[in-house]
Amino acid sequence: MNTNIDSMSVNALRVLSADAVQKANSGHPGLPLGSAAVTYELWAKHMKHNPKNPQWANRDRFVLSAGHGSALLYSLLHMFGYGNLSIEEIKNFRQWGSLTPGHPEYKHTVGVEATTGPLGAGMAMSVGMAMAEAHLAAKFNKENYDVVDHYTYVLGGDGCMMEGISSEAFSLAGTLGLSKLIVFYDSNNISIEGSTDIAFTENVQKRFEAFGFQTLVVEDGNNLEEIGAAIEAAKADKTRPSMITVKTQIGFGCPAKQGKAAAHGEPLGADNVDDMKDCLGWPSKEPFFVPEEVYANYNAIVEKLAGEEEEWNKLFADYSAKYPEMKELWDQYYDENAAEKILDNEDFWTFSDKPDATRNISGALINKLKDLLPNFIGGSADLAPSNKTEMKGAGDFSKEDYAGRNLHFGVRELAMAAIGNGIALHGGLKAYVSTFFVFADYVKPMARLSALMGLPLTYVLTHDSIGVGEDGPTHEPIEQLAMLRAMPNFSVFRPADATETAVAWYYAVSNKTTPTALALTRQNLPKLAGASKEALKGGYVIEDSAKEVPDAILMASGSEVELAIRAKEELAKDGMDVRVVSMPCMDLYEKQSDEYKESVMPKAVRKRVAIEAGADFGWGKYVGLDGAYVTMKGFGASAPANILFEKFGFTVDNVVKTVKSL
Amino acid sequence: MNTNIDSMSVNALRVLSADAVQKANSGHPGLPLGSAAVTYELWAKHMKHNPKNPQWANRDRFVLSAGHGSALLYSLLHMFGYGNLSIEEIKNFRQWGSLTPGHPEYKHTVGVEATTGPLGAGMAMSVGMAMAEAHLAAKFNKENYDVVDHYTYVLGGDGCMMEGISSEAFSLAGTLGLSKLIVFYDSNNISIEGSTDIAFTENVQKRFEAFGFQTLVVEDGNNLEEIGAAIEAAKADKTRPSMITVKTQIGFGCPAKQGKAAAHGEPLGADNVDDMKDCLGWPSKEPFFVPEEVYANYNAIVEKLAGEEEEWNKLFADYSAKYPEMKELWDQYYDENAAEKILDNEDFWTFSDKPDATRNISGALINKLKDLLPNFIGGSADLAPSNKTEMKGAGDFSKEDYAGRNLHFGVRELAMAAIGNGIALHGGLKAYVSTFFVFADYVKPMARLSALMGLPLTYVLTHDSIGVGEDGPTHEPIEQLAMLRAMPNFSVFRPADATETAVAWYYAVSNKTTPTALALTRQNLPKLAGASKEALKGGYVIEDSAKEVPDAILMASGSEVELAIRAKEELAKDGMDVRVVSMPCMDLYEKQSDEYKESVMPKAVRKRVAIEAGADFGWGKYVGLDGAYVTMKGFGASAPANILFEKFGFTVDNVVKTVKSL
């Protein structure tokens, strides 16, 4: 029997993980068994955290990028006494209503810093967390008062390393010299299809050296001393992020499965779990049994950890006394309601009457928000001059100046979105990211995580239709509106003019639980007389019919609202009295009451035409079986934008003809 | 005046590119000016191609991954006399109906090997081309008869290198030792937001060394000899792919713009074009002027190039005579109609009556297709055991055995899709790629390129709904059906049983111009009595009402068709006579005649309920204003699948209640 308390404490994580997977008859024991030691060493002896206050602003962050290893994370959270993660929850692993779902879910389980599962995502989000830390430290720290000073740890496996998103994110992390980012690479040479040799023989360490990381190796992933020394070496590097390759054996401790692909994603089998307990010298075969002395060891660690926050609380109290203006600023940064008052800020809602592209209007609004929200931070994937996302005079976030608020992501859309999530997860900052709308495709996997986690990250997506023009079909969004609108808990605005653009931005920054995308034009649009804050309802009557029940309803978004209004005028000449509905945000419209929806689009009116320079997909809910569409039927083309709108039928004539055909 | 004919020939590419962009008043002169020399040296002196027969099977492939530099590619194609790319087309750069769209488009312009524009895509597609070459060479070459023996060249810039997709693809290329892949890295240190230093200081060469590439450097990107020597050194390496860093100056030759971000994506300005012509010693300022002797030089090269194909034609004729069975096999590989006869192959359409998961059924069909189509090749992003994509006994494609037909992509979904495109672009092979359906998000940007290029690549996407169960919301597709259905020229099948799965596969492999996705279940489904080849119409009546005009229509796809049928039976007990429509492929249903659609879903029937374990988005077109939905209202959860279906309302009771509520 193994009695060393550290070793027992490591094995407790293995036993709980294996038992949880076995009871659920579903899950991934391989990583928990292989990585139990590295996480115990980290959480018990190096990481600054206070399980009694999981929200402590200056805690070290830990992200399990290999989210399938959730059983390990839950075992850690349980043993360290986080939240209310009782042993019953461990027993309910992967069951309906439990706090222990198949992959870790942010906000669902106390102590989970990020939702992970899609491989590589956690890696990139951790870079965002480290950027947030660096920025806040640069903004708030004063001599002898490092009130923001914590590490970000992330653990991923071969899969995380193969995913392109990690290369994108770590290349940027190296460029930015994020020395407080420490990456654990759980290297076990096994993937689902077998040895990693079949698809992954690259020299990962050398790749990280190329990125500008310090690289370290732990030859024995069960040797706590060796692990501890590597962590301290990583912390000691003050100019580069560190990557620690930890050589482990997948399914360690389970004789029948260790080192094999079969250990990865299925229960070990009851007999194999028993064998594992024998092999580890565990004192009982009773499922979920952990000896009292092991709990006692964890409890003692937790008591010590609480002291770290106490020290920080004192530091922060002194800081607040000495720098009251900084304390005030701090409270502004952490005030989730700060943006609400923008609704009544006259300057924010004042625009020129001149036609302008919504991307330009957005650019002007971003520069207003820069002053209204000191914690507003963001940037583009190397398209700032086109996306109009630069905050003038706000500095560039760089290795030399982490206080800069303009982020330069490079041509890395997917990592950008994940980094945006990481910044939002960190807390204290309000972030936006930006690229061309067609590249919403690239950001989609991470936009989905924004939505799942309920992070109010803003996606500024310009060049929103065939209005792109000469760049042609590779750069012209068609199905992207449908793609994003179909996603739960994600709001897509396609504003028709300046007022609606301001509504979109107001919604985006004042919202607390939903990411927002703004689809913005490259080309100029007129300011519309009927546009108003009613746009906050997602869809509203922008030009009404004279009759209470109109002859027909034209519905449109963005650049096509103007076209709908012009068609209405033309139809009036023929005696048709139509209503124009502007639909800047279908997602919000869906949330309105049936009464409101009936008032905007009465069911009695069956002559309905949807006009949008995108796929018709999704409009059928409003068009019904008797209406028609003026939309794109296929991909775009390369030509000046005005030619494209004409060739693809976005003309008053065609809209009029379509209405009359009903 | 510069009279060296090579130098003049290089400058002709610069002049035409700059003039084209200037006349269009739109486009990207920076890369063409910087990379004119490397492409001229390659195309004129090292690349095996025959402009008189751009379809020659054994030609070297060239992909311009930095697709925004299209003006350079068009200038090359024009000067080398490809297709009908006249000087008029160059003058019509980026105009409606021209052969010279903003980014290169496959099938649109003769000689364009791949549609590019989304950065990094061409890099990854070139890896697919090199894999196709390696595989076909292993299959067909005989001693002294290397009938498949060509290089794949790809040129990309800093943006291509920053995108994660290129890391994914090149890591795999290194693992596979694809020595006939030669990558040009146009390194000019400039990105749109300015110096690459702001976001990209990594050591790119070192990264490629880590991947297992030979790395070479051309210090002067205008020195043809130096470029030529590097290309030959790259060719000489028989075990590793090569990466050649070519140091260039963006906008070279234009004094006002060279070396600046402003050279990248906007016209140089008429005066600057004139200055450039002075600077390059060009003999005339007349736009689009190229001296006769330069055309003569290109023509002479083209004559010589034609000889290479003649030699190969002789070789291939001898080979065909000596190995008639190989010639027969070759013809089978290149027969686009080969799959059509599967429609009448009884074995293909024969299934057990036992309930089974459609992923398993698909796995069995893949193993039938393996024998029916010798050129069938594919694999998964490290999920083959779950996706059921292994072709048993067909070998693993590896450095040691390029004849293997099972591809192992590693955990690299995005590159996998691009590689699939590259294989399809190469010709001779019929490819499929596979991952979990939720990771359709990751493949989307490249699936869009499949659709744009009209490549019949098949996406096998298993674990298609909350049927995923315990893995939880990160792994449960909700909006992915809508995302893919909304895309033009892309067919999404969600089969309800074995017959419909066979229909989906038959459609996928017999189709020539449309990519297909198969969304397949993890869980078992019964074989449905009403399922038939009618599914090829996308939507059809699978269980009819007794009345000609039913009381209501239930429409569903995949696993929910069975539920609809059971609800119909329950409703019959209450005297309601409903029709069940199975909708395995909305995209195909949309292509049917109005008459057919009216016969399936008569407009007179307004009581309509759509049932699908996904977002309702897109069903409104069939449900109309008076119907209802039994669909997912948000993300899924982690629990056993049967519990999830019940909790989220996919029960007979709930469907019945919903129908009755209308």
TrEMBL record, chains A, B:
CDD domains xref list: TPP_PYR_DXS_TK_like, TPP_TK
Entries under InterPro entries matching the protein: THDP-binding, Transketo_C/PFOR_II, Transketolase-like_C_2, Transketolase-like_Pyr-bd, Transketolase_bac-like, Transketolase_BS, Transketolase_CS, Transketolase_fam
Keyword set includes Metal-binding: yes
One Gene Ontology cellular component: cytosol
The protein's required cofactors: Mn(2+); Mg(2+); Ca(2+); Co(2+)
A Pfam family reported for this protein in Swiss-Prot or TrEMBL: Transketolase_N
Annotated active site: E413
Calcium keyword on record: yes
Binding-site residues, thiamine diphosphate: H68, G117, P118, L119, G159, N188, H264, F439
Binding residue positions for Mg(2+): D158, N188, I190
Enzyme class: transferase
Domain Transketolase-like pyrimidine-binding, chain residue ranges per copy: 356-527
Keywords: Calcium, Magnesium, Metal-binding, Thiamine pyrophosphate, Transferase
Catalytic activity field: D-sedoheptulose 7-phosphate + D-glyceraldehyde 3-phosphate = aldehydo-D-ribose 5-phosphate + D-xylulose 5-phosphate
Function noted in UniProt: Catalyzes the transfer of a two-carbon ketol group from a ketose donor to an aldose acceptor, via a covalent intermediate with the cofactor thiamine pyrophosphate.
Family: Belongs to the transketolase family.
Subunit record text: Homodimer.
Protein name: Transketolase
